[in-house]
Amino acid sequence: MKVNTAIQSKRLALLGDLPRFQSVLHVGRPNVGSRERLLERFNDMLDRRWFSNDGPFVQEFEAKVAAIAKTRHCVAMCNATVALEIAIRALELTGEVIVPSYTFIATAHALQWQEITPVFADIDPATCNMDPRSVERVISSKTSGVLGLHLWGRACDTEAIERIGREYGLKVMYDAAHAFACTHRGTMVGGFGECEVFSFHATKFINAFEGGAIVTNNDDLATRLKFMRNFGFSGYDKVSYLGVNGKMTEACAAMGLTSLEALDEIVVVNKTNYEAFEKYFSGLQGVSLIRYDKQEHNNYQYIVLEIDPEAAPLNRDEVVDVFHAENVLARKYFWPGCHRMEPYRSLQPNAYLMLPNTERVASRICLLPTGQTVDAGMIASMAEILETAFQFSGEIKDALGKRQK
Ligand code: T4K
Do 13-30+263-330+369-404 and 35-261 have matching folds? Predict the structure, then answer.
């Protein structure tokens, strides 16, 4: 049920009018499947008194995720960050691993947390995904692997990355946090590289409150991953590996299963919203919507605008300020790039020299809300906000200038 209403206003909150939306619109507002099914599952769980440790809901969730990803194995975890850490450890990556800087900080932290240096590769500005040519440029004698990313659900160039992996003897895995239920050249994301990691965080289109999963076709790896997420236990009183507690709870799996049942419905909502963004945001000067290839399966989880500061009357930061004043909490995923955040900024102060496309793209991107809590009327209002702001760009710049003083 959508409860937010757009207030009719000709002007803008930054220019003294009321915000266009009564309550805040978020990027990543959780989608909710059937409440009845969720509560039924909670009751089952309470009756069973089985709350964690490879319970029946977790096993069912794993089977369903593996079926969608078309992989032999799925190992559910408490979140994608821990899943990345465990996958990196299970693959025995060491020294340096190549990763895009243009990602959520968790991708880089999962390496650094285990004292592996993330070496940042640049992106291809046409796709915003890691550029294989840049990967090849930063390979050193210490490189043990490549951690690719399917940004916003659009798959990276797995063929080129895996060719490089084979040529240089590097292990390849993917952060597929955004790419659950997406395809790459008609193949489901999940089976690329040694393994892929999904996120089922509250803000993802399919959520398990918190959750993650590693999918793989490698039987030995799957066995190791299962032990490692449970302190390394391979039987009662028997520990065979170094492990951690990465287990998904039954409550999270119950939510995950309920979300999965609503998957088709949520994709339709996201796709319909995306098409409304295409319609209402076309023709705005200097603004382009990042496109999804309609030949592929997409989850349409992210609505991404690129603001060209040379062509648009306002730059990206000004656009974000305009939206925030109207109660639209636009986000800058992923500004300023991991290399500009600690500890990497201090550890690798010159990394930016190799990352010109990352720097440029990160300064132009603005994400807008979508999902079940957003509809076409709201999208039309968001477009109208931007159109009006462009019309009064001089006054907006003055207002923002005054605010900063
Ligand atoms: N790799 C990549 C490429 C990722 O993008 C992520 C996570 C990961 C790995 C790690 O996955 P997990 O370990 O989280 O499974 C958010 C999410 O927390 C994070 O999961 C996500 N990516 C990232 C892109 O976005 P923040 O710090 O920006 O979240 P926050 O708290 O600002 O929330 C986003 C918006 O959602 C807010 O405006 C509020 C709204 N919200 C959030 C929650 C949790 C709600 O309305 N309800 C809620 O329950 O990171």
Answer: no
Q: Residue with the nearest Cα to atom 14 of ligand 1? A: 201
Q: How do the domains of the chain map onto residue ranges?
A: 13-30+263-330+369-404, 35-261
CATH code of the domain made up of 35-261: 3.40.640.10
Phi/psi of residue 257, each to 5°? -65, -40
Nearest CA to ligand 1 atom 35: 28
Q: At what angle do helices 316-325 and 376-391 cross, to 10 degrees?
A: 120
- Topology given in CATH for the domain delimited by 13-30+263-330+369-404: Aspartate Aminotransferase, domain 1 (3.90.1150)
β-pair partners for 120:
99
C-alpha 4 – ligand 1 centre gap (Å): 22
Give CA torsion, residues 358, 364, 370, 371, to 10 deg: 0
Exposed, middle or buried, 10 (CB in 10 Å: 0-12/13-18/19+)?
exposed
pLDDT tens by residue, 71-107: 999 999 999 999 999 999 999 999 999 999 999 999 9
Percentage of the chain modeled with pLDDT above 70 = 97
Q: What is the pLDDT of residue 228?
A: 97
3-state SS class at 352: helix
Tell me, what's the pLDDT at 9? Answer: 53
Task: Choose one of 21, 104, 320 to mutate for the ligand 1 pocket test, by most ligand atoms within 8 angstroms of C-beta.
Answer: 104
How much is the pLDDT for 405? 59
Helix or strand or coil: residue 170?
Answer: coil
Amino acid 397 reads: K
Weakly modelled stretches of the chain, pLDDT under 70: 1-10, 404-405
